[in-house]
């Protein structure tokens, strides 16, 4: 018996070994266990394993039972624990309960906690002049602060984070070691005496010190300057969101002439600038603190240049103490857009911002806490009364999910070319990375490769297979082919469809509408308006849109007039836009030189924008559809009923030709024509679903692909489908756009393994 043994009779003391999995590291779980053990008179220890928490608990049977129940029922707010093992073990008769040093020699079962917004308790201290952390920009505790972006390796201990370079002062050390303190074993804990520090840089001027640098930054913002501000997962470009001249300078310098800019507001400012419903406020204040697309109030004084031609603006609340201090001192909304070269991952180092954005930012507010990996802000839109993910990032990525099946070998999925994310899957787990960006530039490709390496090292899982898009020229596909891993390709729209099949595995037969801008099709044409029938791994093209020949290849995405001209030429109609290159394009179209054959609904949106006179050329992907949706919300029109015919291969195709007269009818307003277009698309979708139901019987209907980021179209389609008795689904946790492709690639690649759950009756149409 050990010294200090309890005096209970031997038979009254029991011992159990508990292994808890889930999100149990980085959330104050060990301190919580310590306090709970003291409450119930439990002796023993708790320690971090590689992604799990192990507890040796000794006590009376009823105390152990209550202790075990409260571990789950009263866990810290950001923890998601579950008991993966509970077994009787030998009593060691410990005299107390202790937190042990982490055990590095245990099986890996890693779960990473995302970055957490600053909590209410820390905000109170931040505003308390009597507190030693008063106005300290890096205040945090066991319940808040950076996690994923500063973890270098696991287990989650201070020595394994970028806080290793900041030794704790005696006051912080006492808090860190006091089991009754909120900062007990809070790994990022710091204070002005021992923690990170701000520096303001403007030209050759350098102002060090937290308060001095903060005040210099606020003064620069009030002068109308653009400041690169280092946050949790990278830099923002920040400026006065009510200053037209400042916003215009940003747009000219970046350059970013039209793409919407995110705005950071204090919670008490929301009602002044935007309309906020209950579910939107809950999302804004959630643990993710994402950007949420919200309708602007006409009475607010936000610059009209924030989101040109749109009624919505992307809004987020401050999620770091530095943001709170900046907004409080500045007193007005701030633009907070990603500090990057357009399309690239957000910049994270002081050196990169100085070298690559010196032509954009007038100044920089930096600090000396290293950002281990980039994490852009997540973006959501409320569609059909539910939050829908548009972009994964800080606060919700890595996105950890359970697969609806178990895979045999660890597998990597590398996504698409635009809005890239990657996924790592093993056993029945999958992890999606934060948003990386478009893979056009060398830096994007470098970060893409770094994230692939990093996610495998962080989760201690080495991929043996890789899944990529079937498009041979995507940068992600090129990487996959040269990786040395066993390779499997998945068609773009099959991955979109499988996203839904993975999120809702209870449905066994699907009709998924996969509408987007472009994807490599099974028939080697450019798809983008497909309806696919079946389930993961087994998809059959059963409906689509009338194909047309699109001149200019990838240029068409930035030049909507090309789509408009292609439809007119295909229908033998004359359309003469004031575009110098139209004759050359027509000649190329006639000879089918650099022309793709496409069924893309995304390109139909572009054609509608051009033919109605809205816009002929755009500066960012998706601009024409976004502007068209915004106008349509102001319009009033009924749907056209388009022809639906079966082609020689058995695929039902909707003919867009009857839309052309409507597009060019200037007797109607552009808003009414835009509304008619949306109503017509929703009705055409319904007609395709009804036709397939006549042939195939019962199935679930899903909407997947970038076109369905459009709330007006999606909600109209949902309403029509549900009126006709269809069960309808839309991605929730996974982005509906190409940011969700990596998840769909994994689900589709392993669909063959579970083929027994799929209807194997002969199907009409082209088997793909």
Produce a short descriptive summary.
An eleven-stranded mixed β-sheet has the order 7-6-14-8-9-13-10-12-11-15-16, sandwiched between helices. Strands 23, 24, 25, 28, 29, 30, 31 and 32 form an eight-stranded mixed β-sheet that branches. Strands 17-20-19-18-21-22 form a six-stranded mixed β-sheet, with helices on both faces. With 768 residues, the chain is α/β, with parallel strands linked by helices.
Spatial sequence of strands, sheet with the most strands: 7-6-14-8-9-13-10-12-11-15-16
CATH topology of the largest domain: DHBP synthase
From the coordinates shown, what is the CATH architecture of the largest domain? Alpha-Beta Complex
Number of domains: 4
Strand content: 15-25%
How would you characterize the overall build of this protein?
With 768 residues, this protein is of the alpha/beta class. It folds into four domains: 10-99, Alpha-Beta Plaits (2-Layer Sandwich), CATH 3.30.70.100; 115-388, Alpha-Beta Complex (DHBP synthase); 398-490, Nucleotidyltransferase, domain 5; 507-729 and 760-767, 2-Layer Sandwich (Nucleotidyltransferase, domain 5), CATH 3.30.420.40. The chain is built from 21 helices and 32 strands. An eleven-stranded mixed sheet has the order 7-6-14-8-9-13-10-12-11-15-16, sandwiched between helices. Strands 23, 24, 25, 28, 29, 30, 31 and 32 form an eight-stranded mixed sheet that branches. A hairpin with a 4-residue loop joins β2 (43-48) and β3. α13 crosses α21 (741-749) and α19 (670-696) crosses α20. The longest helix has 27 residues, at 670-696. The radius of gyration is 28 Å and the shape is globular. The termini are far apart. The relative contact order is 0.09.
């Amino acid at each position: 018996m050990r010294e200090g043994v309890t005096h209970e009779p031997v038979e009254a003391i029991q011992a159990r070994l508990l292994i808890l999995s889930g999100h149990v590291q980085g959330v104050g779980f060990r301190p919580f266990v310590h306090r709970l053990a003291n409450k119930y008179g439990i002796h023993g220890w708790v320690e971090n394993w590689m992604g799990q928490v192990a507890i040796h608990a000794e006590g009376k049977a009823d105390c152990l039972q209550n202790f075990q129940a409260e571990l789950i029922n009263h866990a810290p707010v950001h923890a998601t624990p579950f008991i993966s093992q509970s077994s009787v073990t030998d009593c060691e008769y410990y005299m107390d309960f202790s937190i042990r040093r982490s055990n590095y020699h245990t099986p890996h079962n890693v779960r990473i906690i995302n970055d957490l917004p600053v909590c209410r308790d820390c905000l109170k201290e931040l505003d308390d002049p009597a507190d030693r952390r008063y106005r300290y920009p890096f205040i945090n505790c066991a319940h808040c602060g950076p996690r994923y972006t500063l973890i270098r390796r696991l287990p989650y201990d201070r020595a394994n984070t970028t806080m290793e370079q900041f030794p704790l002062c005696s006051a912080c050390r006492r808090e860190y070691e006091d089991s009754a303190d909120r900062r007990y074993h809070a790994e990022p804990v710091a204070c002005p005496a021992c923690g990170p520090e701000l520096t303001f840089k403007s030209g050759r001027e350098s102002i060090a010190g937290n308060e001095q640098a903060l005040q210099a930054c606020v003064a620069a913002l009030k002068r109308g300057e653009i400041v690169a501000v280092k946050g949790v997962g990278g830099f923002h470009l920040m400026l006065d969101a009510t200053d037209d001249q400042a916003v215009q300078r940003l747009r000219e310098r970046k350059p970013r002439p039209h793409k919407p800019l995110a705005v950071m507001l204090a919670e008490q400012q929301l009602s002044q600038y935007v309309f906020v419903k209950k579910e939107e406020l809950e999302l804004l204040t959630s643990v993710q603190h994402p950007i949420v697309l919200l309708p602007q109030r006409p009475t607010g004084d936000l610059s009209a240049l924030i989101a040109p031609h749109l009624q919505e603006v992307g809004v987020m609340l401050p999620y770091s103490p530095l943001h709170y201090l900046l907004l409080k001192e500045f007193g007005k909304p701030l633009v907070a857009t990603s500090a990057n070269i357009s399309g690239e991952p957000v910049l994270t180092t002081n050196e990169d911002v100085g070298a690559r954005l010196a032509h954009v930012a007038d100044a920089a507010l930096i600090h000396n806490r290293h950002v281990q990996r980039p994490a852009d802000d997540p973006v959501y839109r409320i569609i059909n009364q539910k939050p829908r993910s548009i972009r994964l990032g800080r606060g919700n990525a890595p996105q950890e999910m359970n697969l609806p099946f178990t895979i045999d070998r660890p597998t990597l999925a590398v996504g698409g070319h635009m809005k890239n994310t990657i996924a790592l899957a093993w056993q029945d787990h999958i992890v999606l990375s934060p948003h990386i960006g478009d893979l056009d530039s060398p830096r994007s490709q470098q970060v893409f490769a770094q994230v692939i390496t990093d996610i495998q090292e962080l989760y201690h899982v080495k991929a043996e297979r890789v899944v990529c898009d079937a498009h041979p020229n995507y940068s992600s596909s090129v990487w996959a082919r040269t990786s040395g891993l066993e390779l499997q390709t998945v068609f773009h729209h099959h991955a979109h469809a499988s996203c839904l099949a993975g999120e809702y595995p209870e449905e066994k037969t699907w009709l998924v509408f996969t509408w987007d801008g472009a994807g490599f099709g099974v028939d080697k044409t450019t798809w983008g308006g497909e309806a696919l029938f079946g389930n993961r791994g087994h998809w059959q093209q059963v409906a689509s849109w009338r194909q047309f020949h699109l001149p200019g290849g990838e240029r068409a995405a930035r030049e909507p007039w090309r789509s408009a001209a292609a439809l007119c030429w295909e229908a033998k109609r004359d359309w003469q836009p004031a575009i110098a290159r139209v004759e050359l394009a027509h000649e190329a179209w006639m000879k089918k030189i650099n022309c793709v054959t496409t069924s893309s609904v995304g390109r139909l949106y572009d054609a509608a924008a051009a033919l109605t006179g809205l816009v002929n050329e755009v500066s960012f992907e998706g601009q024409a559809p976004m502007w068209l949706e915004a106008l349509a919300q102001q319009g009033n029109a009924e749907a056209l009923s388009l022809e639906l015919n079966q082609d020689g291969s058995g695929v039902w195709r909707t003919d867009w030709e009857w839309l052309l007269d409507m597009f060019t009818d200037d007797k109607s307003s552009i808003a009414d024509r835009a509304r008619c277009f949306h109503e017509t698309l929703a009705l055409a979708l319904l007609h395709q679903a009804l036709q397939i139901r006549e042939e195939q019987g019962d199935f679930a209907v899903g909407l997947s692909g970038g076109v369905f980021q459009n709330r007006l179209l999606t909600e109209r389609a949902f309403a029509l489908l549900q009126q006709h008795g269809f069960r309808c689904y839309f991605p929730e946790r996974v982005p509906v756009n190409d940011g969700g492709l990596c998840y769909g690639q994994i689900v589709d690649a392993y669909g063959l393994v579970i083929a027994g759950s799929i209807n194997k009756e002969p199907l009409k149409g082209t088997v793909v």
